[in-house]
Design goal:
13 helices, 3 domains, four-stranded antiparallel beta sheet, Butyryl-Coa Dehydrogenase, subunit A, domain 1, Butyryl-CoA Dehydrogenase, subunit A, domain 2, single chain, 8 strands
Length: 385
């Protein structure tokens, strides 16, 4: 356990990262139109390609990618600041989110030079959006049991199978899919590979899934004898498990696993400022802020390890597990606080924001790996299993 605790060494954001914050705030003030809280609460599920391209024009999509590919060549700390500021105001970031956070870094680390030259400039220009093909029907977050299969064919591969809960697949040009390229599902981690799939190829069918809120952020994607050329394979054939594990460290570690409910929290704080806050309200607010401050420190500690080129898989899983539980707690506790006194006057916008997050928050602990899977990883990291 001591090794895991040492990984969360208290780390301050560097001065240059904090200086970058003012630049980000200025950009947001200039380029983000005002929107109601229930709209802003969608933030990293909010798809706005035009806003993503405005960010890209500043070099802030692919922020950590090398300048020769159109990135800004900045470090993970400044990406932390950028993400934190965008989520704090509820900016719509879903269009470029996955490509910026994990697809681009994955291609940079494992891709061929041709893949880097083709995809990375398009990611940095916000002209190519990526989704992730991991979960499958009847498999969920058990990635090692995937059944979607790529079979060697003349000049490439034939892909057949299905992916589900694929975020914004209906809006994206590409998917990075984890599939089985050899062996059987019983082989678990062996025989898995990652492929870049052009979603416009014949045989790819994307079906959006409507959630409780009426939004359609997720999709089911079917591959019916889709031909992929040899250049679609990322890294080594059969090395997909190692690659996807490194990719998930990028997905699980950032502030996006802390701030999904922050617009609601800010709206409630604004309500307390207008009304007479009760002692119970202030105690609850203090508890939530203390938890957020602690989780933020943990996330920055993981960011420091990413900045050093490390792959903090277990630490990122821990931040994601605790962080998403915190995100889910906020709407549940605020529901109780607001309804404790039916006579209190509550603005309709606050009610709408609370209603949205109450419906969508169960998904917070599913995306990026279920709580059960993450806790198994953490237990192994602690030497408990």
């Amino acid at each position: 356990m001591s090794n895991l605790l040492d990984a969360f060494h208290l780390t301050a954001l560097p001065a240059e990262a904090e200086a970058f914050r003012a630049e980000v705030k200025e950009f947001i003030a200039e380029h983000l139109p005002p929107a109601a809280a229930d709209v802003r609460a969608r933030s990293w599920m909010g798809f706005d390609a035009a806003f993503s391209r405005r960010l890209a024009a500043r070099g802030w999509v692919g922020l950590t990618l090398p300048t020769r590919y159109g990135g800004a060549g900045m470090d993970a700390f400044r990406r932390f600041v950028l993400v934190e500021e965008l989520l704090a105001v509820g900016a719509p970031v879903a269009a470029h989110w996955i490509a910026d956070r994990q697809s681009g870094p994955l291609i940079l680390r494992y891709g061929t030079q041709a893949q880097k030259d083709f995809y990375l400039p398009r990611i940095c220009a916000a002209s190519a959006f990526f989704c992730i093909g991991m979960s499958e029907p009847n498999a969920g977050s058990d990635l090692a049991s995937v059944r979607t299969r790529a079979v060697r064919s003349e000049g490439g591969w034939r892909l057949n199978g299905r992916k589900i809960w694929t975020t914004n697949a209906q809006h994206c040009q590409y998917m990075i899919a984890l599939v089985r390229s050899s062996g059987a599902p019983e082989d678990r981690q062996k025989g898995l590979s990652q492929f870049i799939v052009d979603l416009a190829l014949p045989g790819v069918i994307v079906r959006p899934i409507v959630d409780l809120t009426g939004d359609a952020h997720f999709s089911e994607v079917t591959f019916d004898d889709v031909f992929l050329n040899d250049e679609a394979l990322i890294g080594e054939e059969g090395a997909g498990w190692e690659q996807v594990t490194a990719e998930l460290a990028f997905e699980r570690s950032g502030p996006e696993r802390l701030y999904s409910s922050v617009v609601l929290l800010d709206s409630w704080v604004a309500h307390l400022r207008r009304e007479s806050a009760k002692p119970a309200d202030l105690a609850l607010l203090g508890s939530l802020v203390a938890q957020l401050a602690t989780l933020r420190c943990m996330s920055i500690a993981v960011t420091a390890r990413l900045a050093r080129g490390e792959s903090p898989v277990v630490e990122a899983a821990l931040v994601k597990d605790i962080g998403t539980e915190f995100e889910q707690t906020i709407p549940a506790l605020l529901e109780a606080a607001i309804t404790a006194d039916p006579a209190r006057s509550i603005a309709p916008e606050l009610y709408r924001t609370l209603a949205y997050l109450s419906q969508v928050s169960p998904a917070f602990s599913l995306r990026g790996g279920t709580r059960e899977v993450l806790r198994g990883m953490i237990a192994r990291g602690l030497g408990l299993r």
